[in-house]
Write a structure and sequence with these properties.
Radius of gyration: 15 Å
CATH superfamily: Cysteine proteinases
Order of helices and strands: HHHHEHEHEEEEEHE
Strand order of the largest sheet: 2-1-8-3-4
Distance between the termini: 15 Å
CATH architecture: Alpha-Beta Complex
Helix content: 25-40%
Shape: globular
Number of helices: 7
CATH topology: Cathepsin B, Chain A
Largest sheet: 5 strands, mixed
Number of domains: 1
Length: 175
Amino acid sequence: MSNSFPNYFDAPNKLLQLESNCGLITAWTILKYFKKRTSSAKFINLCCYTKKHGTFTIALAVALRKHGLKVSFFSELDPTPNAIEKRCYSVAEKIGVAIQPSIDLDILLSKIGSETIAVVLYNTPEDNGHLSPLLGNDEKNLFLPFSDEGYLLKQEFLTFWNAPEIYRQCLIVSL
């Protein structure tokens, strides 16, 4: 799948020029992979993008669902969701996004395939939340095309995925 997955820099310039754009570009590449079309302006709005926050995982779930994809959202309980997140949770339930407790990495990896893509939120070494597609794994590494190296060691990822305020959030997306 990684050979056929869209490249980060193939995203529209309007998305590439925004700060904190990892979520927008992750979701855009998933739409492109599943051959769904959208305009940059519409997509930025649907993802509830702000310069301060970028976009939230639940907002990506809503935007992808509104483009006709099946989406499941997994997360630990966030005791203090942002106002944008609260609105997105409400919309998500109304449009059929499955909201479920967080899952283990092995279960998440077992769901990935050519017809199913995962999106993960994890902390970076610079202490920034980062969204990336998760396209698969080998014995030691996870294939995260929008990470600095294109992969992370599983143990390193687990540390970043379990960081405070990350809540082990992920999406599973399919047609």
